[in-house]
Amino acid sequence: MSHPRIVGLSGSLSAISRTRALLDGIIGQIRTGSDAAARIIDVAELGAALGPLRSREQAPPELEAAFRAVETADLLLVASPTYKGSYSGLFKHFIDFVDYKALVGRPVGLIATGGSDRHALVVEHQLRPLFAFFVARTLPTALFVPDRAIVDGKVDDPLLCQRIDQLVEEARLVLPARALAA
Question: Could you tell me which of 42, 75, 44, 56 has the C-alpha nearest to residue 167?
């Protein structure tokens, strides 16, 4: 029997970022006490191959593997920094190649970071509608974490930590039962 698969998709344009650190930490919390396997797909690492891509048929093997990982995840967590009130363009370019039928009913956790609270609705106005198009099952709790709340790769705001804990609990509830330790 295979282990449930958690896939994180980081939409940051930087290989080292607050968004990626936040995603790593949340996936680590979800995996605590489970046998779930995890993989993070970072668009920053795929950018050279992803940027010029015009059709999925032209995708090199590493991109095709990333698309398939997203499409077959038992739980997908997406995280993007916010630019001008929306997710990153490279994140959207990646998503444009995901099979629109592959995410039907798939649980998806929504996470965004940003420089100011003016971007706080990005998860509700941009990410949730994007995954509604795919008929994915977005988790009820979505996160927006301002950059100032991430210190040394960890969230230092107690209220945000409570929201993270809520998202983690919701994510754990949707993992297949075999993932949870007895």
Answer: 75
What tokens does 64 get? 């095709």
Task: State whether residue 63 is helix, strand or coil.
Answer: helix
Helix (H) or strand (E) holding 108: strand 107-114
Name residues whose C-beta falls within 8 Å of residue 13's C-beta, 6 or more positions apart in sequence. Answer: 43, 44, 47, 81, 88, 90
Q: Which two tokens stand for residue 15?
A: 């290989």
pLDDT tens digit sequence for 75-116:
999 999 999 999 999 999 999 999 999 999 999 999 999 998
Report the DSSP pairing between strands 137-138 and 107-114.
parallel
d(CA 41, CA 173) in angstroms, rounded, equals: 23
The string of pLDDT tens digits covering residues 117-152 is 889 999 999 999 999 999 999 999 999 999 999 998
Find residue 151's DSSP bridge partners. Answer: 154
8, β-bridge pairs: 40, 77
Residues of the chain with pLDDT > 90, as a percent, come to 85
Domain 5-177, CATH: 3.40.50.360
Number of helices (H) and strands (E) in the chain: give both, helices first: 7, 8
Q: How far is CA 33 from the centre of its chain?
A: 21
Domain limits of the chain?
A: 5-177
